[in-house]
């Protein structure tokens, strides 16, 4: 069971368990078994490195931006008298950010892969053009794929810049937290806040997965399929392009 799942059972008894879906199980993929996977060119490595550096920078900026909010959240969680529940709440407050990091890292890895595939498609198109084939449509499809990948990179970076911090204003209590009734009210408000934070996080992640990421994957598929329609594109080559499919 996931960390969020087990923590929610103990901390949020009586509510639905928070499901931590793993990005590798839900992220769109492209089957590139038929594309030659040679050593990445320098340009692709530079794109990858720049994207990683930008992701790191926006995450640092995000954490700096919400430092005060995180401190307030820690203070509110410290009001929980039950130590076991307090520890679980502390783990939950950190887990949301970790999930966002894992998903955005995985999305960037997929985009690196899409970039490499697109480069191979371009190489094949160049060879076909050198043989006098008409690659106009394939070139347009390749450009569309490149644009979709860059758009997705921007969207993933924007998602990485988001911080998911407990909203302490929604956890305010009307009675002292040192009293039993105050503890009941505190736990009720924390439960609601954690649930809302969970919903917001996965709403954002699913929108990214089913929007820009899916668009990039489909654009690469289209480019590869368009390449395959060029008459004689595989003549004189050792490998042939394979049809892509979502996994």
From TrEMBL:
Domain of life per record: Bacteria
Q: Which organism is it from?
A: Candidatus Kaiserbacteria bacterium RIFCSPHIGHO2_02_FULL_55_17
Q: Which UniProt keywords apply?
A: Coiled coil, Signal
List each coiled-coil range: 41-90
In Swiss-Prot or TrEMBL terms, this protein is called DUF5667 domain-containing protein
Keyword Coiled coil tagged: yes
Q: Does the keyword Signal apply?
A: yes
List the signal peptide residues: 1-19
């Amino acid at each position: 069971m996931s960390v969020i799942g087990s923590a929610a059972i103990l901390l949020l008894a009586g509510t639905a368990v928070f499901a931590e879906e793993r990005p590798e199980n839900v992220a769109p993929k492209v089957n590139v078994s038929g594309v030659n996977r040679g050593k990445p060119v320098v340009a692709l490595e530079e794109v990858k490195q720049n994207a990683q550096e930008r992701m790191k920078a926006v995450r640092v900026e995000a954490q700096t931006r919400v430092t005060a909010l995180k401190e307030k959240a820690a203070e509110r969680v410290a009001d929980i008298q039950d130590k076991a529940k307090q520890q679980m709440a502390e783990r939950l407050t950190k887990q949301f950010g970790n999930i966002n990091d894992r998903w955005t890292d995985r999305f960037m890895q997929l985009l690196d892969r899409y970039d490499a595939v697109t480069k191979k498609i371009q190489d094949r198109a160049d060879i076909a053009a050198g043989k006098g084939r008409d690659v106009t449509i394939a070139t347009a499809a390749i450009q569309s794929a490149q644009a979709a990948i860059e758009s997705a990179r921007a969207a993933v970076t924007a998602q990485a810049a988001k911080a998911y911090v407990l909203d302490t204003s929604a956890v305010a209590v009307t009675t002292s937290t040192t009293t039993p009734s105050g503890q009941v009210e505190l736990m009720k408000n924390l439960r609601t806040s954690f649930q809302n934070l969970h919903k917001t996080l996965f709403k954002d992640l699913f929108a990214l997965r089913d929007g820009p990421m899916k668009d990039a994957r489909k654009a690469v598929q289209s480019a590869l399929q368009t390449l395959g329609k060029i008459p004689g594109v595989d003549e004189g080559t050792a490998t042939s392009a394979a049809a892509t499919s979502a996994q």
